[in-house]
Amino acid sequence: MSYEFLQNYWWCLIALLGGLLVALMFVQGANLHLGNRQLSDLQKRMVLNSTGRKWELTFTTLVTFGGAFFASFPLFYSTSFGGAYWVWVLLLISFVFQAVAYEFQHKKGNLLGVKGFRIALIINGILAPFLVGTAVGTFFTGSPFTVDKVAITDPSAPIISTWGSPWHGLEALGQPYAVLLGCTLVFLTAILGALYVLSNIDDEAIHTQMRRTVKIAAIPFLVFFLAWALLNLLAEGYAYDAEGTISLQMLKYFANLMQMPAVLVMLLAGVVLVLLGIWKGAFTKSRNGFWFAAPGTVLVVMAVFFLAGFNGTAYYPSSSDLQSSLTIRNSSSSYFTLKVMSWVSLLIPFVVAYIAYAWRQMDRRKITQDEIKEEEHKY
Amino acid sequence: MDTIIWSRIQFAMTAAYHWLFVPLTLGLALVMAVMETLYVVKKDDFWKKAAQFWMKLFAVNFAVGIATGLILEFEFGTNWSNYSWFVGDMFGAPLAIEGILAFFMEATFFAVMFFGWNKVSKRFHLASTWLTGIGATISAYWILVANGWMQNPVGTTFNPDTVRSEMASATAFWEVITNPVAVSKFFHSITSGWVTGGIFVVGVSAWYLLKGRHRDFAIKSIIIGGLVGLAGSAAVMLSGDSSGVHAAEFQPMKLAAAEGLEDGGRGAAFTIVPGVKVPRMLSILATHDPDGYVPGINDILNGYTDNEGNVVPSVAEKMAGGRVALDALAVYREQKDSDPEVAAQALAVLEENVRYMGYGHLEKPEDVVPPVGVVFWAFRFMIGFGMLTALVLLLSVWFGWKDKLPKMRWLMWAAIVCIPLTYIAGQCGWIVAEVGRQPWTIQGLLPVNVAISSLSAGAVKTTFFLFLAVFAMFLVIEIRIMLGAIKKGPGTVEPEKA
After folding, report:
1. Which of A55, A342, B257, B347 is 20 to 30 A from A356, comparing alpha carbons?
2. In chain B, positions 258-297, which contact chain A (CB-CB < 8 Å)?
């Protein structure tokens, strides 16, 4: 196994984790219905219990995504998390509230009341996909940072990665190209959430609401996604050569798509699957749209990561100092670390297998009103 | 300067909060799993109800543990940016593996355990309960491998081209995961969790006995919880002993601070409290030899000869070597492409002095001395409260077995009082471990002042107070919900809000 192979392999795994994270954010999307006035309190509680059995998977995927990024591309971890501070802090706070909102919501003595925790879940439902999307959006637009490894020898200013904007990440909200991806994810996760609830709950009124949501969210999702995709494919991109020198290149991402036909196929297949899921949810009697849209989402997100990082592209470009841009070559862990972790990664199929087994066992019986009324173990 | 202090305060606060929830998770998981096993084996519904009651409390606690853990993981990046790059190659892998191998196990089987009573088979449910606890335990192993590496950084070399500590070889990872410091830390932390879970169950049950409620449930819980706690106590003492030996070997300053030992020597005495000493005891604990040499704070500052006859240079000498290494690194980086000869010379100088490079970041030799008073007293509270709890657990199990407990009200009260004392002991343990290694984030390699992110003190202060407020609120809510559930007692539906 060569060093390059290992770096590529880990970029694939990061892309996969990113894809799974976005798909699993159906939890966030579905929780938006806690504020849906067309649903009764009992029906909202059914939604809460439906996502309540899955949120830990989303949360764990977020943590593992962070951990794997740290382990395989530590320069990204140190540069982005320490630099775009406020974006990550906001994201974390929203997830922290989400983590306790299920358990605390219907318990006496919870201080914030049912409403307070539902509002926290709704905020997380919007903020999490929006911030994750915007952050990934900056993979294409660039961020204002510099990386200077000699700094560590300078006692007066020893920090290697420094951020050029006093907004520490919030400046990304002023980059329309990045924000478009954030908006795309908000509507995509809303669609995924509705499709999941449709498949997991037996209740006619809820089904009607979910199909409506899919229909309503589909249009802004498509508009935002297409706008983002077109603008980025036509924009300048950050390329690096054999020496690792970074330069701006016209139509870089479009060129990537043409030069990596496998990624083009992934992207198209993913988009078709998502559209198929939307169509099934919005216009047919089928309840299994989720099982098209979710894998489709994974494929699309992976393709986006591949466009950002493969084919000689700097995946985390610096807009203030071109040569500080991060590539999968200059930001990765050492050969031995990547190799050891690659061996560990062979256990991933085993992990996926037991998750799938437990998921099937738990979702065999759909959630009904009677269950939520009678079951003692519920949120 | 302010950014360093606030980054440390923020990390310490997050870690301390996290450790309020983790030990109970580890301990209660075992108690519940044992009870559910009794239910499945004996087919007695009593044990099902008992397991479900403790599970309810487990779930409230688990949620906050997850929330604080998320912040903790990402704070390495947000607030310790230089650290993340400098040792990410070593430190990141255990974190990633923790996610892949442990967190998914916990997450998946927690949901089955909590909601699956009427959905999956009895056996699958039992397996899920065990796997939730095993997942938490595996998770603790990997994070303590990471922490153990910070205390004793094995298997790494400095790479001047990437400017970081890297995995040294194909077998280095094995050194990292079998690092003796990590292994004894793992056993020490896990089993201290059993003590916490044990005394929690015993204390809550004791309250029922005092109130004359749920007598049968309380006594049986005291025996199971007490046995788990006792097993934990015994293991905590054993692993504590090896922790002492490791500190002497790898972090002598931590040991000197914990003992308040200004000047060391052979046959050093152990100070129980100031003024009360046991002759030769410190040498026995630290080196397993009554005549073993234990360096004091001044010896470490001024240089000494260790038990193997190695001469350890003074801190001032190490700092001088470190500065030479840092200067050589700067020259090497500048000349690498332009003047290979100068670069090669610089590299040779660097290699000669690289093992003291971390010391080059220090301002004065005294910087290597941690706050002695804090570490000294934390160490004593940890041991004192730990011993007291072990005794109370022993008596509770003994008299519970003899069925004499309900008459021994003082013991019941003692068990209740020992719940907060055990938490204090756990916090004190981490204070010894983490404050005791100041100023190092990575022992000998990277002091805190060069480990931080490029943030203003104001930004870090803001997030500190934000996190503090959120965590404090969660803690208050958790305690209120738990007290409510405990008042309701086992076998009843949890209190509902309309």
Report:
1. A342
2. none
pTM greater than the 0.90 cutoff: yes
Q: What is the mean pLDDT of residues B93-120?
A: 93
Residues 364-423 of B with CB under 8 A from A: none
- The reply to whether B57 falls in a domain is yes
- Distance to chain A for B166, nearest Cα, Å: 6
**B256, part of any domain:** no
Mention every residue, 6+ apart, whose C-beta is less than 8 A from residue B326.
A152, A153, B357, B360, B361
Distance CA B115, CA B135 (A): 18
Q: Which structural domain, as residue segments, surrounds residue B127?
A: 2-251+370-488
User: How far apart are the C-alpha atoms of B15 and A224, rounded to whole Å?
Assistant: 40
ipTM of the shown complex: 0.94
Can you tell me the distance from the alpha carbon of B187 to that of B112, in angstroms, rounded to the nearest whole number? 27
Task: Report domain extents, chain A.
Answer: 3-374
Supply φ then ψ for residue B293, to 5 degrees.
-90, 130
B453 vs A: CB within 8 A:
yes
| Distance from C-alpha of B357 to C-alpha of B261, rounded to nearest angstrom | 27
- Rounded Cα distance, B464 and B44, in Å: 49
Q: Which of the listed residues B322, B339, B361 is the one where a domain comes to its end?
A: B361
Q: Is B89 on the interface with A (CB under 8 A)?
A: yes
B389 and B236 Cβ atoms separated by less than 8 Å: no
Give the residue from B361, B391, B418 where a domain finishes.
Answer: B361
Q: Give how far Cα A329 sits from Cα of A16, A234, B193, Å.
A: 19, 25, 42
Residues in chain B, overall count: 498
Q: Which residues of chain B lie closer than 8 angstroms to A378, CB-CB?
A: 115
- Across the interface, whether the CB atoms of A78 and B81 are under 8 A apart is answered yes
What is the amino acid identity at position A233?
A: L
Would you call A361 exposed, middle or buried from its count of C-beta atoms within 10 A (0-12, 13-18, 19+)?
middle
Residue B230 makes CB contacts below 8 A (sequence gap 6+) with B198, B390, B393, B394, B397
Cis peptide leading into residue B94 (ω within 30°): no
Element (H, E) at B442: strand B440-442
Give the pLDDT mean for B159-182: 95
Do the Cβ atoms of B111 and A56 come within 8 Å?
yes
Of B186, B231, B246, whose CA–CA distance to B31 is shortest?
B231
Name residue B192's amino acid: S
Per residue in A10-44, pLDDT (tens digit) is 999 999 999 999 999 999 999 999 999 999 999 99
Classify each residue of B449-468 as buried b or exposed e, where b means 16 or more C-beta atoms within 10 Å of its C-beta.
Answer: bbbbbbbeeebbbebbeebe
Mutation site, B167, B454, B493, interface A, largest A CB count within 10 A: B454
**Of residues B346, B351, B352, B344, the one with CA closest to residue B331:** B346
State residue A63's pLDDT score: 95
Residue B260 lies in a domain: no
Q: How far is A372 from chain B (nearest CA, A)?
A: 11
Q: Do B160 and B233 belong together in one domain?
A: yes
Closest CA–CA distance from residue B31 to any residue of chain A (Å): 19
* Residue B198, domain member (yes or no): yes
Q: Measuring CA to CA, how many Å separate B130 from each of B29, B106, B343?
A: 8, 10, 57
Q: How confident is the model at residue B170 (pLDDT cuts 50, 70, 90)?
A: confident
